[in-house]
Write a structure and sequence with these properties.
Blueprint: H1 2-20, H2 23-36, H3 44-54, H4 60-93
Length: about 100
């Protein structure tokens, strides 16, 4: 009987761990979403994987990459604008291209 209580105690500790870490909440929400789906997906496992992946916490590296992408987009726009400005300045000093040289 002591072995049975030890197993129960471990099981209860594990359940509490899952509850504190939010795992039970997330699993419950995903299973409820699957239950409420009007048309059940062919693969319940794929449904769970998709929805669990979507609710995963953000990876700090992912956020750093998003910031870097935003910075690169700003730099790209600035370079495009600078290029446009320089082309218009250059056009002032070049002869029109449809005039032929020497004719």
């Amino acid at each position: 009987m002591a072995h049975y209580k030890a197993a129960d105690s471990k099981r209860e500790q594990f359940r509490q761990y899952l509850e504190k870490s939010g795992v039970l909440d997330v699993l419950t929400k995903v299973l409820v979403a699957l239950y409420e789906e009007p048309e059940k997906p062919n693969s319940a496992l794929d449904f769970l994987k998709h929805h669990l992946g979507a609710s995963a916490p953000e990876n700090p590296e992912l956020e750093a990459l998003r910031l870097e992408l935003a910075e690169m987009k700003e730099k790209y726009e600035a370079v495009l604008e600078e290029n446009k400005t320089l082309k218009s300045k250059l056009a002032q000093y070049e002869p029109p291209q449809d005039e032929k040289h020497g004719e």
